[in-house]
Amino acid sequence: xxxxxxxxxxxxxxxxxxxxxxxxxxxxxxxxxxxxxxxxxxxxxxxxxxxxxxxxxxxxxxxxxxxxxxxxxxxxxxxxxxxxxxxxxxxxxxxxxxxxxxxxxxxxxxxxxxxxxxxxxxxxxxxxxxxxxxxxxxxxxxxxxxxxxxxxxxxxxxxxxxxxxxxxxxxxxxxxxxxxxxxxxxxxxxxxxxxxxxxxxxxxxxxxxxxxxxxxxxxxxxxxxxxxxxxxxxxxxxxxxxxxxxxxxxxxxxxxxxxxxxxxxxxxxxxxxxxxxxxxxxxxxxxxxxxxxxxxxxxxxxxxxxxxxxxxxxxxxxxxxxxxxxxxxxxxxxxxxxxxxxxxxxxxxxxxxxxxxxxxxxxxxxxxxxxxxxxxxxxxxxxxxxxxxxxxxxxxxxxxxxxxxxxxx
Length: 409
Fold this sequence. Notes:
- By secondary structure, the chain is mostly beta strands.
- Helix content is 4%, strand content 46%.
- The protein has one helix and 37 strands.
């Protein structure tokens, strides 16, 4: 029989879910188009680009999508928004498109090159740095009307990131280049890996994380001068990692093939799975803040989160618990793919992990892995598990407790 507390908590959760779904949820999956890039300039306005000049836009957070016509027929590799009005698309054959009206129309720019353009950084609305195939670089000081070309080489430059004066470019064959003076001077920092690096994200003025092929995760704490290899909680060598983004300095999310989504709560030192709710290969990842993010990839798939990829966690009022404790789940039994709720109690602050195991002791899902304050919480999660009997295991600061629950068809 449900207690009054459980009924009250369910009402709160139903209210929460009416405006925001926890974790990751699919907002598009149609046909064959391969989406290479996705970006958003606020929680409602999202743009995705892909094969054969495809441009998709949503003005309502992904609830509906429209195809935008343009002069592009080549594969579009990158979309970047500088502001709600100014956006750039880059792609094969030197293709560059510019919008100054929030994506309603796109004007083709004359770039004077035929190489694949992979990424752009806006120093301001007129000054940009564009990178691409074979270490190609070009800059503009007039919003793309004219260009200066700054060199080329062997390895592709795949992605660029800046935070203040610190800038980092990553590319294939482990290419890493850094600047500490806003782009006036660049230095080669390659050598940490021979694998392709696909994405880079900077946490603060000295820390950054790069990801790439063969499950590669690199981390730096000294402005990119030295890089160390980081290993996740699951084997990643068969996965291509395609995107990484900082939500805060400590909280980082990465995406990859096979629907892989991982997150870190300790600035990239350790990584744990998020429930992605897709098995499609993900090619791109973007966040507008610590909560609102999107991922895109094969078969036109677009995933969305409004909770930073985590499940719903509600802090409960009351006195501090005396011990680490996981209460009985409700409803119990839980319907397959139904929304489940469980109360956890933490007597101290520290990283809390709530995992699900089967009766053979195999880990089946990580529900929660986060730095938590002492207190009581309700955790809501998607019970996407086969029919059977399972165990919750709650751990914090070397203490743990186990609770049994059942999933039914």
